[in-house]
Design goal:
259 residues; alpha/beta; Rossmann fold; SIR2/SIRT2 'Small Domain'; 2 domains; 6-stranded parallel β-sheet; 3-stranded antiparallel β-sheet; binds 2'-O-acetyl adenosine-5-diphosphoribose
Length: 259
């Protein structure tokens, strides 16, 4: 159960805020049925060896295996929906002047729930690109315009290099413009709401540190402590799907009571 005094403190911080940044990780999507990366047993990596699937070397070594895994994950997205936590974050936009979502997730669920300013730090599973970025970074390839099979990485229609998912693999740089925007927003916000991330991966893990250094109140939503927790002023223990709707409903009630 979420600690009521922590919830009230979080509502008070949000009520004072003009700019709020939400920084989300895989835990944000777990209640939509998408496994996280590091949860024991069911974590995505528990079943696969990331070095075999999510690196440029793996794609070089076995493009068809990597392609098939990503096509499977991409197609799974048609079967999942945003949950109440995603919709609560989208609802924040009606309560707070400026809301920006910085997500490590590649599932597009924040946008599908209605969030209008989403920075995808690690790319998007539903977007594919030429692995040589032959026409600029990224050279997006619309799969509906080419013929391809689920088992073979198709050739880029422009240059013949293989088509790959437009997601950040281990060892790759994040999209520079996304990183720049993310740290700029972290420095400008009055509140950063960190949801469902272990804080195990950089540079996303540094965003709350930057926000706190710049004077923001850092609120963490997670069923368990993480590497982020020591940086958080307020820790709301619980899942995204239960805590976020409660937090947003309490903020709405507070604003209606004393605008
Ligand atoms: P992790 O799997 O590392 O962490 C998931 C976090 O979500 C953990 O802290 C869990 O306690 C928490 N969690 C689990 N269920 C939750 C729920 N229902 N509600 C809220 N939180 C919950 O995932 P990330 O931190 O996102 O990078 O991992 C970051 C990056 O590691 C991924 O973007 C990916 C991976 O390498 C790339 O692919 C480049």
């Amino acid at each position: 159960m979420v600690d009521e005094s922590n919830l009230s403190e979080a509502v008070a911080a949000l009520k004072r805020a003009v700019r709020v940044v939400v920084s989300s990780g895989a835990g944000m999507s777990k209640e939509s049925g998408i496994p996280t990366f590091r949860d024991a047993l069911e974590g995505l990596w528990a079943r696969y060896d990331p070095a075999e699937l999510a690196t440029p070397e793996a794609f070089q070594r076995n493009p068809d295996l990597v392609w098939a895994w990503y096509i499977e994950r991409s197609e799974k997205l048609c079967t999942v929906q945003p949950h109440a936590g995603h919709y609560a974050i989208a609802e924040l936009e009606g309560l707070i002047p400026e809301v920006v979502v910085l997500t490590q997730n590649v599932d597009g669920l924040h946008v599908r729930a209605g969030s209008r300013d989403v920075v995808e730090l690690h790319g998007n599973l539903e977007r594919f690109k030429c692995s040589a970025d032959c026409r600029g970074r990224p050279t997006v390839i619309d799969l509906s315009t080419i013929s391809y099979s689920k088992d073979h990485a198709p050739p880029c229609p422009y240059c013949g290099a293989r088509v790959r998912p437009d997601v950040v693999w281990f060892g790759e740089l994040l999209p520079p413009e996304a990183v720049e925007r993310a740290f700029e927003e972290a420095r400008r916000c009055q509140v950063m709401l960190v949801v469902g991330t272990s804080g195990a991966v950089q540079p996303a893990a540094s965003l709350p540190v930057e926000a706190r250094r710049a004077g923001a109140v850092v609120i963490e939503v997670n069923p368990a402590p993480s590497f982020i927790t020591p940086t958080a002023h307020i820790f709301l223990q619980g899942t995204a799907g239960t805590v976020l709707p409660r937090l947003v409903a309490a903020l709405r009630a507070e604003q209606e009571e004393s605008p």
